[in-house]
Amino acid sequence: MSLIDKYLNESMLRHCAFYEATNGKWYMELADEEYGEQEDATTYGPFSSQESAEKYLNQFSNPGSFYTDTKKKPIPKKSPNGRPVIVPNYGRTGFGILRNYGGYKFR
Known about the structure:
With 107 residues, this protein is α+β, with helices and mostly antiparallel strands.
């Protein structure tokens, strides 16, 4: 398959996973770019439920699919890509360019 065929026939997937941490809160890992793997992902959270994390995902381009890890993990201290965990900051931004990035602060 040629590179052009690959881009025309494949979905623009990137790593997207949800998991519950030992604190009972939910976190989302999302690769920063198309075709990004887990090691390229930024972590967002905490969220009160998986549903609220999925709703937050709507602020980003569609990853194509996502994975839910059923095993509880430790509370993340940093993202797989080494960046800080991004804590959603609902309600403080809603205008201009910041809305496109979901309005967040770094942990």
